[in-house]
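Blackboard transcription, Thursday session:
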Amino acid sequence: MVRAERKVSRQTLAAAVGVHYQTIGYIERGQYNPSLDLALKVAEYFGLPVEALFSLEPFQPLTDQVYGHGRDQ
Amino acid sequence: MARQEQLSGYDQRMFALMNRREGVPLYRTAGRRRAVVGVHVVLTAAFVAAWLGTVVGELAWTGWAMLGLLLPWCVATGAINGATRGLLELRPRALDERQRAERDRVRAKAHQIMGWVLLAAVLVTGIAGFSGLAAKALVFQVAVCALVLHWLLPLWVAGLAARDEPDADE
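(Written on the board underneath:)
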């Protein structure tokens, strides 16, 4: 998860993008889909394209991407 | 929070009040939230009954019963508001997009339930009237109950719809 990787707390990110910190938690748990506006603000905060943070398909764990686990399946 | 620059002093105080953490043990799990809402429903029913006893029945002791019920009712109300983070108490500008959407859902659900309750009330009073019972004498009591239900149903729905806190920050 990019937020944890960058050592940014939920409160810090929430304050930066103007939402309640619970909203960040619900987005991370997949319990809330942010608006395009909020998604763009989060992407801007991390300096990443929005598709690097949000996807229609669940992201593969980082270890799978780095070490190639699960490619044989 | 970035939005707080646009919030009035009142909004900021209410936001801080609704996000206090002291009551968290009361509503940490779904079971506890259901229990708090259940207690609130019972206290409200008792309070309304006591008030009607005072006003309609002209009973003296029910006034004291109301005073006794007031404090626990306020505590239960505070617990539900804490569980929902002030979903129904804060102004829209103090809520974010998720909370505003949640509030709309809660109000829609409460409106739907209230419609069924009113339908039931109409049917029951109608049947009672056609059966020859003195339903007119109960009009005031039924109207008071409907008003209280209309006022508090969104709070109860919000309390039941509240979700568990996200896990502790990594």
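Lecturer's comment: The radius of gyration of chain A is 13 Å.
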